Amino acid sequence: MHVIxxxxxxxxxxxxxxxxxxxxxxxxxxxVFEGDINESQLMRLRDSLERETKEGETVRIWVPSKIIETIxxxxxxxxxxxxx
Length: 84
Prior knowledge:
single chain; five-stranded antiparallel β-sheet
């Protein structure tokens, strides 16, 4: 399945998130990764990112092949509510 991930974390912590994502996906832009992985890889990636995510940080995972399913880890700003 094709997966797109974007994260918004403290600047000093971006390298840790980058390393986790690069184990599974290709870097497209700063804090944005994409690629094809299987379901078990997605679960391992999600678990790794979730363990690292702190209060106020956001990780978003899009799985376009699943009718625009969005998996969000962490909190998001209220201004983003309602955005698909």
